Amino acid sequence: MPTPDNHALELTDVAVQAFTAKYGTEPECAWAAPGRVNLIGEHTDYNDGFVMPFALPFYAVVAASKSEVWEFHSTYGEGSTVRAETLDGVEGWAAYLAGVAWALGEAGYEVGPVRIALHSDVPHGAGLSSSAAMECAALLALADLYGHEIDRAEAARIAQRAENEYVGAPTGILDQSASLLCEEGAAMFMDCRDLAREQVPFALEAEGLTMLVIDTNAPHRHADGEYASRRADCEKAAQLLGVDKLRDAPADAALDDDRLNRRLRHIVTENARVLATVKVLRESGAAGIGELLTASHVSMRDDYEISCAELDSAVDAALGAGALGARMTGGGFGGSAIALIESAAAAKVEAAVLEAAAEKRLPTPRIFTARAAAGAHRIR
Fold it and tell me: 50-66 and 70-74: which strand pairing?
């Protein structure tokens, strides 16, 4: 189990204090689960394709104890609490916590009521998997309290089912897998068909490189019609090609329907870009993956049509200021972009991104440096 970093410990102190203030006792356990950046491989997960995320050092922390009723408390804003006799019909932010309890039961892992206090600093709405971080921290806390040892890959499937069937967001397996399975100092190359994975070294500092995450402050929502429509397009394209998933489509496959053909082209080429990125990282390091990142953004912008003005502005400005490569990351329709840069160029790239947003009268982005952090772990 990884050693918690100081930031995770600080967040846990807040969660424990919130639990004690709300319920009058200390929690029995506390688990932290991180958000993630997807280096490359977007919308390939629900097509049984390849992805390559790494965990961010931003965490959702769940402090929890057994209880007689379900009680969910969050520190968001001024704090809010949801109390429920059963798991039926829990809504809003608490649905992500109730959902994993329901999904655990559906998977044969019996759990009972708990009291939870949630504290998270994973940016909400930024496409960095704040929901998956909540789900994974809550799932591991519930399993801990009720004595279940669950393989992390299975836990990812359970958390995904919670988001798909309980919350109603048709996401793939990427986010939960990243939160549970990523390792410090590595990007995780994963096959979403069987969850086979390899931790590929990703220590940019040693190469004099930096990865900037640009939260555009354009709201990012998975559970909307656009995400679902892209998934439906892929299912239709696979049906027309006579394959189970677009992962199985030949490299030269084409369809008469222009929209479906563009969706198909993105998935086929994005899977190829993931494989190429892994090869470059293994053989020569991160400096050589910039063009692959940029090509991924172009594909998402033009073929998958999931970008927006805020994301395009951030990517274009970063590239114009000398970034080696840049792309939107996450489900799209808002959220964040990433830019791979030479560390010495950080100030120049940040200034260019901020200036471009101001000129276009777009929301002011929040920019921070990313590093590959550890996956979910018990704090206390």
Answer: unpaired
121 is catalytic: no
Cα gap 228→205, rounded to integer Å: 38
Whether residue 221 is contained in a domain is answered as: yes
Threshold 0.70, pTM exceeds: yes
Mean pLDDT across 47-52: 96
Strand partners for 377: 32
Q: Catalytic pick from 175, 215, 233, 303? A: 175
Query: What CA–CA distances, in Å, run from 88 to 62, 94, 106, 208, 356?
Result: 21, 12, 13, 51, 46
Structure confidence at residue 313 as a pLDDT band (50, 70, 90): very high
Give the percent of the chain with pLDDT over 70.
Answer: 97
Written as one string, the DSSP assignment of 4-67 is: PPHHHHHHHHHHHHHHHHHHSS--SEEEEEEEEEEEE--S-GGGT-EEEEEEEEEEEEEEEEE-
Domain that holds residue 252: 203-370
Are 64 and 207 found together in one domain? no
**One domain for residues 154 and 277:** no
What is the reported pLDDT for 227? 83
Residues contacting 358, CB < 8 A, separation 6+: 364
CATH number of 298's domain: 3.30.70.890
pLDDT, greater one: 225 or 297: 297
Same domain, 258 and 360: yes
Helices vs. strands in the chain: H and E counts, helices first: 10, 12
Distance CA(29)–CA(66), nearest Å, equals 10
For residues 45 and 191, state if they share a domain.
Answer: yes
